[in-house]
């Protein structure tokens, strides 16, 4: 019997989701970032519940997949015009899948910062925000709760 390789569907796949589930089988929330290097950098800071879309905008499929695992999704995109546009598109998309009990939050970074800033910039706001985020302190976030 011939085994065909699985086809990659970028609109459904989330880089780092498998590793996040392996690190913690009882995830409470997931962080969505723009790129896979953000996921890698956040893992270096001890944040193991981050994932990234594969070069595509956050889709309903991405969110449905995440909301089957967790009730809370946090979006953290780069602190630039493209990141703000990505956040706006993510907000429009997440509103389509919101039901009672689900939460979406947005962590906005200062202009020019991104989640993957690392040891080369030890005072990086993104890194310290990510650490605070992992401790459930939500500096610079906006919460959107589902309405019944």
Overview of the structural elements:
The chain has 148 residues and is an alpha/beta fold. It has five helices and six strands. It has helices at 17-23, 36-44, 60-67, 81-97, 125-134; strands at residues 14-15, 29-33, 50-53, 72-76, 103-107, 141-145. Residues 134-148 have low confidence and may be disordered.
Question: Reading side by side through the largest sheet, how are the strands ordered?
Answer: 1-3-2-4-5-6
By DSSP, the count of extended strands is 6
* SSE sequence, one letter per element: EHEHEHEHEHE
- The value of Rg in angstroms is 15 Å
Major sheet description: 6 strands, mixed
| Overall geometry | globular
Fraction of helical residues: 25-40%
Uncertain runs are: 134-148
Number of helices: 5
Report the structural category: alpha/beta
> What separation lies between the terminal Cα atoms?
50 Å
As a percent range, the share of strand residues is 15-25%
Mean pLDDT: 79
Summarize the structure.
With 148 residues, this protein is of the alpha/beta class.
List the helices and strands and how they pair.
Blueprint: E1 14-15, H1 17-23, E2 29-33, H2 36-44, E3 50-53, H3 60-67, E4 72-76, H4 81-97, E5 103-107, H5 125-134, E6 141-145
Parallel strand pairs: 2-3, 2-4, 4-5
Antiparallel strand pairs: 1-3, 5-6
Looking at this protein, list some descriptive labels.
6-stranded mixed sheet; globular; alpha/beta
């Amino acid at each position: 019997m011939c085994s065909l390789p699985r086809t990659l569907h970028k609109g459904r796949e989330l880089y780092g989701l498998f590793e996040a589930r392996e690190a913690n089988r009882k995830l409470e929330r997931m962080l969505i970032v723009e790129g896979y290097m953000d996921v890698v950098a956040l893992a270096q800071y001890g944040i193991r519940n981050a994932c990234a879309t594969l070069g595509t905008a956050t889709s309903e499929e991405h969110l449905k997949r995440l909301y089957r695992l967790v009730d809370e999704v946090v979006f953290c995109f780069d602190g630039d015009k493209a990141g703000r546009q990505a956040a706006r598109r993510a907000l429009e998309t997440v509103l389509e899948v919101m039901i009672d009990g689900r939460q979406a939050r947005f962590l906005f970074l200062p202009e020019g910062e991104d989640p993957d800033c690392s040891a080369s910039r030890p005072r990086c706001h993104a890194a310290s925000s990510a650490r605070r985020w992992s401790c459930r302190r939500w500096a610079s976030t906006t919460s959107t709760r589902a309405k019944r």
